[in-house]
Design brief:
Blueprint: H1 8-40, H2 43-46, E1 73-74, E2 89-93, H3 95-98, E3 110-113, E4 126-129, E5 135-137, H4 138-145, E6 149-153, H5 164-181, E7 186-190, H6 197-202, H7 208-225, E8 228-230, H8 232-236, H9 257-268, E9 278-280, E10 286-288
Parallel strand pairs: 1-8, 2-3, 2-6, 6-7, 7-8
Antiparallel strand pairs: 3-4, 4-5, 9-10
Length: about 290
């Protein structure tokens, strides 16, 4: 059997094809991935509103909750709204927030979470997005979703080993970056929920005093930065300041299903009166401005 020697032209053509095919594959993969991400993350549904609409709300810059509130605003109890109120919202947090991906009452909520995240590595670590499983840093995700309301809950990871000042310093820098890059977004800092009495006995770093100190620091941070504060801790505490057993998971830190239902109900009855695409009708339902 005889073999024909490959000509110079044929060799050059083969080399060109070997170079082109990987590049073409990468381009096609990028296009498919981008389209899939837009589909899975529901990008179009969150952005379907007029961000320049004048909705007649009192904005946070001119609102004072109490004489001590500075430029911040503590969200009081309000008329219950329909869950469509949260269609322009994004929830961010640690493993507690990951439960929003499990229970039916939150199935239409947009949320990103990172198990084990604290206020410092939240700036750089990638968060998992509910529904799609895609990952982005918090800052990237907020920019991607461009929400009108951003609910943040951070600090349970770290309160048992880090100082309050350290946690708040990281929180401050994170929120400042988010607010600077998303000026139309109402940032809502949520206090962290308590742990059970048994958990605080097992680990004294999880003491009620540590939680009170940190949560008061979050309240002051909201005043300092001019954003909202939502006292989630109050919704779950017993008179002694510990996590109500009715809402607790067996570990005494996370929520059971009743806890997530409590969080959901509390959110519906503690809404911001600042800028939003939604208005609240006298009977408590949400209407759009379109």
């Amino acid at each position: 059997m005889t073999y024909r020697r490959e000509t110079v032209g044929e060799a050059l053509l083969r080399t060109i094809w070997l170079l082109i095919l990987p590049v073409a594959f990468l381009i096609v993969s990028f296009i498919v991935s981008s389209r899939a991400k837009d589909y899975h993350l529901g990008k179009s549904t969150l952005h379907d509103y007029d961000k320049n609409a004048d909705l007649g709300y009192v904005t946070i810059s001119s609102t004072r909750a109490t004489s001590n509130a500075g430029n911040g605003y503590e969200i009081p109890q309000s008329v219950a709204v329909d869950k469509s109120y949260f269609s322009d919202a994004l929830f961010v947090g640690d493993s507690i927030t990951s439960g929003l991906n499990i229970y039916d009452m939150f199935q239409d909520f947009n949320a990103i979470y990172k198990v084990g995240v604290n206020t410092h590595n939240a700036m750089t670590d990638e968060f998992t997005m509910t529904g799609s499983g895609e990952s982005m840093t918090m800052v990237e995700a907020v920019h991607y979703y461009s929400p009108r309301k951003l609910y943040i809950m951070l600090g349970t990871n770290g309160i048992n080993w880090a100082s309050t000042d350290w946690l708040l310093d990281g929180y401050r820098e994170l929120v400042k970056v988010i607010m600077a890059e998303n000026p139309d977004c109402a940032v809502i800092l949520q206090s962290i929920p308590p742990v059970s009495y048994q958990k605080s006995v097992e680990n004294p770093s999880f003491s009620k005093e540590n939680f009170d100190l940190y949560n008061n620091g979050i309240r002051q941070l909201a005043i300092e930065l001019g954003c909202y504060f939502l006292d989630i801790n109050a919704a779950f505490s017993t008179p002694d300041g510990y996590l109500d057993p009715a809402y607790a998971a067996p570990d005494g830190v996370h929520f059971g299903v009743a806890g997530y239902q409590r969080w959901y109900d509390y959110l519906l009855t503690h809404t911001i009166q600042g800028e939003s695409v939604y208005k609240i009708s006298p009977d408590g339902y949400v209407i759009t401005n379109h």
